[in-house]
Amino acid sequence: SVIWVDAHADINTPLTSPTGNIHGQSMSYVLRELQSKIPVLPNFSWIRPCVSAKDLVYIGLRDVDPEEHYILKLLGVKVFSMSEVDQLGIARVMEETCDYLFSKVKKPIHLSYDIDAIDPSVTPATGTPVVGGLTYREGVYITEQVCQTGLLSAVDMVEVNPLRGQTEEEVQSTVSTAVDLLCGCFGRLREGNHPSDYRLPEEAEKRSRKQI
């Protein structure tokens, strides 16, 4: 299963892309249903489709080309655009995401997280920022919930670009948010954490420590 958190769908094919930018086509190369729509391109023959449309969920979309919108509808891909996030709330979005992906078989999750899914007021140092994105809290909540499924097998964090920051503050805000998102993937909770083997010290242990 793939959870794709992004402002963009990145599902254009080389034949539908209005810009020709390869970074806006990555999903089309790995979807089985689009295999026949991808022309043979030099240096890309090693890529093998490995994801079915029914195992893909998008969260945070808000900048989708008409051609991409057609593909999403044609393949019946599950999409929670920012309209759905606003309407349902991020907790409901994650609940429905898990229900959808795990309704039949629980498969390992690959979480693909583009930092431009977060609103550029929080993460401005990125190549293609789009206003109206996820809040910091919504973004972290996604990672916490994916981690708690116990099925997260891989995560990628993309489009963090310090060169795009206009000030040091913009760079730090973007980078620190990306780090927090990754920490959420690996189990850090905002309520706090403690080691699994931690136990409260006994009075005798406190006295022995003082003597040492």
UniProtKB/TrEMBL annotation:
Binds 2 manganese ions per subunit. Pathway: Nitrogen metabolism; urea cycle; L-ornithine and urea from L-arginine: step 1/1. Pfam families: Arginase. Its EC number is 3.5.3.1. GO terms for biological process: arginine metabolic process; urea cycle. Its cofactor is Mn(2+). InterPro entries: Arginase, Ureohydrolase, Ureohydrolase_dom_sf, Ureohydrolase_Mn_BS. GO terms for cellular component: cytosol; nucleus. It catalyses: L-arginine + H2O = urea + L-ornithine. GO terms for molecular function: arginase activity; manganese ion binding. Keywords: Arginine metabolism, Hydrolase, Manganese, Metal-binding, Urea cycle. Belongs to the arginase family. This is Arginase. It comes from Lates calcarifer. The gene is ARG1.
